[in-house]
Amino acid sequence: MTSRLVVIPTRRAHSNHAEVARSIGVDIIAGRYGEGVRLPGDAELTAMFGVSRPVLRESVKTLVAKGLLTTKARVGTVVRERGAWNMFDADVLAWHLDAGIDRRFLNDLAEIRLAVEPRAAALAAARRSEADIAELNRSMARMRAEASDSVGFADGDLALHLAVANASGNLFMRSIGNVIEAALRASFLLSAPVETQDRETVLLWHQRIVDAIAGGDAEAATAAMAEVIYNGLRRHEGTSPSPSAAPATTAVAEPGEQS
Fold first, then answer.
1. Domain coordinates of the chain in residue numbers?
2. Which residues form the HTH gntR-type domain (predicted)?
């Protein structure tokens, strides 16, 4: 569950303290500094990064705020357990992409998506506007026009999911979609349906989401969204998705069962 699948570099930070925070953050996420491990002292770290003590302290404060580190009197700066990390922080997500996405990350992402996106699709079916439907159709058109393993296909896929969140009318669902956007794009790139049958399956189920939302069918929208997420997870795991199998109805209520 911890084997690295792929590294997706993100943009570098623009300030010294942000770049030091990014470097240490990536090392923590990659396991070079394990949970409960004390970081090297200030003198060693300032020499390592070529920065001043104030810059280093600002970097540590950033990592403490994001849940990766804690500072203890007479102990030093210690790496916190993974459960304390703020996974909805944009930097923490970006550092996961730098460190290398593993299966655990993908499973966790699928679980939070199953907890949110099927419900967002149901709400979208009740609340969508003509503009929302037009955006969903544009996203489908882009997916159909792009090669399955291209960035354009992944971006079309991402645009569709963000359009569903937007059409839900729920501000929290919109925010979650925007926060995990980079992780979703990386996930879609990793699960690209390169085989012809896989591509047709992906397009079929995404179209079912669009059709159900446009038709105001909340139940069908929920089921189609859940199946899309499960199909992506199957491709991550190297098994072929079924083009016509009905999604498990318990998947939405109990998203943790798929891992």
1. 17-84, 102-235
2. 14-82
Q: Is the pLDDT of residue 92 over 80?
A: yes
pLDDT digits (tens, 9 = 90+) for 105-126: 999 999 999 999 999 999 999 9
Q: Determine the Cα–Cα distance for residues 20 and 62; give it in Å rounded to an integer.
A: 10
CA distance 219 to 242: 20
Whether CATH 1.10.3490.10 fits 102-235: no
CATH class as words, domain 17-84: mainly alpha
Q: Which residues contact 157 (CB under 8 A, 6 or more apart)?
A: 139, 143, 188, 202, 206
- Evaluate if residue 82 carries a pLDDT over 50: yes
Tokens encoding 171:
């501000």
Given a contact cutoff of 8 angstroms between Cβ atoms, the answer to whether 78 and 64 are in contact is no
Given the structure tokens 């200030």, which residue do they identify? Answer: 42
